[in-house]
Amino acid sequence: MKITFEELDRFLREQFPQGAAYGTLRKLGDGWAEMSLDVDDGHLRPGGTVSGPVMMGLADVTLYAALLSRIGLVPLAVTTNLNINFLRKPKAHTPIWARATMLKVGRTMGVGEVFVYSEGGDEPVAHSTMTYSIPPKKHEN
């Protein structure tokens, strides 16, 4: 693992302050991460369920954390593709959490998957696959 939980948590708070709107880092390992989000009225769509963009944001930031665990603090690693399947209705006003796992990390790309859960539920409410572009390393002279 290239970074510690504390280093990544500090990085996300300082360099990605809007990230708190998408979730809080709970756990971090080599190539995986877990984040959670307390769901409030601002996260709900008509019909009383968590909106798709909220789940997508949580999934995206969680995979970003999993990727950075492998490559270090690389701010310009960016999402190039995100596919998500919404599997079942999350519970309103119940926290959601995500677990991301890197499937492959190369020199220029990282591919991973994320499962999103409604707290207390055994079955995922969404599943996402993503590709991240990793910027080339700068060579020192």
TrEMBL record:
CDD domains: PaaI_thioesterase (cd03443). Its EC number is 3.1.2.-. The keyword 4Fe-4S does not apply. It is an enzyme of class 3 (hydrolase). Keywords: Hydrolase. One of its GO terms (molecular function) is hydrolase activity. The keyword Hydrolase applies. It comes from the Bacteria. Gene3D superfamilies: Hotdog Thioesterase. Residues 47-123 form the Thioesterase domain. NCBIfam families: unchar_dom_1 (TIGR00369). This is PaaI family thioesterase. The lineage of its organism: Bacteria, Pseudomonadati, Pseudomonadota, Gammaproteobacteria, Pseudomonadales.
